[in-house]
Structures are given as C-alpha cells and as structure tokens.
Design brief:
342 residues, alpha+beta, 12 helices
C-alpha cells in the first residue's frame, strides 16, 4: 500500500487541510517566516496559512503525494521539538504525543472509518497512531475534523494511509469548507457596567451592552461570576467571560454570560475505554470535574470495536474534555487493566 502511494502516486496532486491553534501556527511560521519558507523549499509542497485574527487557522498543503509526506514529516518533527522544549521547563514526566487535526470532507469519512470501523482500526493497528473522526461536522461546513496523535513516524505512516483512502474515495457532491471565525472580544459584566478585555486592561464597553446587562439583571436570577446563566433575552451573540477577565475583575460580583452549550461525539476503541473510565470510574469523574463538561459513554454494542462518547458543554469545556480524553487514551492504564496498542 505504501509503495502504491510513494511510487505510483507521484503524479497525483492532493490537497490536505489542517486545523491549527494560533500557537501551533506560530511555530510553523517561525521567526520572520523562516520555518515555513524552509518547509516549502525542502518539501516542494505549497503551504498556505489562512489569514485573520482567529483562535484557529487552516493550513493548506498542496502538491504531489511525496511532497505532502515530506511537509507532514517536517511539521510533525517541529511539533515534537516544541513538546520536548516545553517539557524541559515543566515537571511533567510522560511525554505527550504529537497531535495533528486534519479537516476532511464528511463524504469521505465513511470510507476512512470503514464498515463497522474496520478501516480506521486497520490504520491504527498498522501505524501505531491514534485516529479519531469527529462525530459532528465543523460549524457552517460539510467537513469533519480527523485527529491523529502519536510519534512523528506513526503520524507520517498514518497520513500516507489516509491519503490512499482519499485518493480511492473522492468526495461526493460539493464540499462546503470550514472557515474559522474571528475571535470575539471577551465581555465581562460587573457592578452594572459592561467591560471588554483588551490586552491587560478592562475597558468600559459601549452603552448598549451595559443597558443589555441591566435588562438581563432585572430578568435573570442573580448569579455569582463563573457560574452559568441563561442567555440574555433577545441576545443572539454568545458573550464570553474569559479567565483573564475574571482575574482582572477580582472577586467583584457580576453576570457571566457563557456561550450556549453544544454537543460533540467521539468514538474510542473498546481496548482504550478502560484507560478513560479508570478504576471504578475515577478517571472519567476526574475528567468531568476538570473540564466542567457532561460526558456520557454509550454501552458496548455487539460486533462493534468502538464505543461512542458524548460530550456536552461550552466549546471551551468540550475542548478541554477532548484533550483530557485523548491524553488518557494515549497513556497505558496506571492500574494495568489496559495497555496502549503497539
């Protein structure tokens, strides 16, 4: 299968899209764009990074398959280097895996998962990488996130196999690409006044938000900062209260307008579910407490090698829960009940 991609597929031009956080993008770009320039020159692939003041950015890699694999190898090794550097300044003992998020048309995800999860299981077992296909499509798109984690070598082998699937099963119909939304300014309410956070300072917000806040105070039961309240009457935009804002405002009482709760689904192999639940449910309870999300694990279904996990909460809760679940599934169970598949 590998030779088919590396030899027979040289003339095939592919486009792979990656979803990255701002910090990851900064690492890929490097000082004055030197790192990405080097990656473009050495791999021969076109690497484009979406513009905009967004917490997430899309990195598009286009080129012959061999150029794409070289670019992926360079990105994976760069991320591993970042992890190694960050560990030298921390007390963490276990090294977290390198994680990349691909953005794949939903119409191709069925081929990637395979009948009864057979294809994704085969990819996991033959590469040693963890692969998870998100249950939901990314907002306002027909694409899903596919998360790959493991060693750089495992990730490169995994990407090769995913490329084979994508070449063999082209997308069906039109694809609406995912476009990350710009970051909205965090808003905090305190003492009957609305503030926005700019850098290190809380700036009083224009009158309309203050009036909205006062209206909400009249109609919503008073809640201390940091707890969730119902959405404002007539207010469509989710307003965010950030940790930075809470630190700036200290203990001053106010109203925290949290983003509306949403639901996200994951599939986890049966052989890793024990790592996530922990002995007598200790690990999953810890993940629930740390993330603030509701997490439900579906019962095992006969003939299926995977279990469905449903996470409900704010986008921040869900992201943290996903990170903690991934971290748990990547480590052997401390009690020796399950070990990470070789």
């Amino acid at each position: 299968m590998e030779s088919k991609v590396s030899e027979g597929g040289l003339n095939v031009t592919l486009t792979i899209r990656l979803l990255m956080h701002g910090k990851e993008v900064g690492s890929i770009i490097g000082k004055k764009g030197e790192t990405v320039k080097k990656m473009r020159e050495e791999s021969g692939a076109r690497i484009n990074i979406s513009e905009g003041n967004c917490p997430e950015r899309i990195v598009t890699i286009t080129g012959p398959t061999d150029a794409i694999f070289k670019a992926f190898a360079m990105i994976a090794y760069k991320f591993e280097e970042d992890i190694t550097n960050s560990m030298s300044n921390s007390t963490a003992t276990s090294k977290p895996p390198v994680t990349l998020r691909l953005v794949v048309p939903a119409s191709q995800c069925g081929s990637l998962i395979g009948k009864g999860g057979s294809k994704i299981k085969e990819i996991r077992e033959s590469t040693g990488a963890q692969v998870q296909v998100a249950g939901d499509m990314l907002p306002n798109s027909t694409e899903r996130a596919v998360t790959i984690s493991g060693t750089p070598d495992a990730i490169i082998q995994c990407v090769k196999q995913i490329c084979v699937v994508m070449l063999e099963s082209p997308p069906k119909g039109a694809t609406i690409p995912y476009r990350p939304k710009p970051a909205s300014t965090p808003v905090i309410f305190a003492g009957g006044q609305a503030y926005t956070i700019q850098g290190q300072y809380a700036i009083p917000h224009p009158d309309q938000l203050t009036k909205l806040h006062q209206l909400a105070m009249q109609q919503t039961p008073f809640t201390p900062l940091g707890q969730t309240t119902p959405a404002f009457p007539g207010e469509k935009l989710p307003l965010h209260s950030s940790e930075e804002a809470q630190n700036l405002m200290g203990q001053s009482s106010g109203l925290d307008a949290s983003p509306p709760a949403s639901t996200h689904e994951l599939t986890i192999p049966n052989d890793l579910i024990g790592c996530i639940i922990g002995r007598q449910g200790t690990k999953i309870n810890e993940i629930r407490q740390m993330s603030g999300a509701q997490i439900k694990i579906a019962n095992a279904t006969e003939g299926s090698s995977e279990r469905q996990i449903t996470i409900t909460g704010t986008p921040a809760n869900i992201s943290l829960a996903q990170y903690l679940i991934n971290a748990s599934s990547a480590d052997p169970d401390p009690h020796g009940r399950n070990t990470f598949p070789a």
